[in-house]
Amino acid sequence: MDYASASEDDLITAIEELEEAQSLPNIIALVTANVSRGEDFETVIDEGLSAISRCLGSADLSAEIGNDITVCALKVFEDWAMSPSVIEACFALSRKVSDQQSCKESACTSFARNVSALVSCVRANAVGEGTLVEQACLTFENVGLSSPANAALSKAGGAADAVEEARGSITNERHVGYPDRALRAINGSV
What global pTM score does this model have? Predict the structure, then answer.
């Protein structure tokens, strides 16, 4: 199937079939091919990112697959900044890939170098989106903990300010400490 020209319905069916087959590289390719197709494909992007996240639970990631996921996530952060559901799914995926041993260093470095896109997404979507903010905090924590250089890039790019501004959106009592964890990692005071 040509992912870049298929219909939304065909792509949703393909995601379901690929997830059932645990075909992570093909789901990544499908999402990446459709990132720029516009708001009519929001469900495709959202479902695709969620399928990738679910597949990560059972996959041993190679560095190459981790890199492909990171590139895909960064494209989503750039193109879908105004879609809370997509950005929430993207932060959840970014948190997972930035915690995978095989690709943690490269994923965290890529997220740190492109932190302005992540920060813009938090600022654009934080109000009333507690789960999105929680996932963003966990992603920023992973990035900050990965190296002092990544923590410094994150801080310089406004991650600490975005976390502080968004902290009030978290209403789940078990997760209200996530902003503090992210801030300690970003500020290098872990």
Answer: 0.94
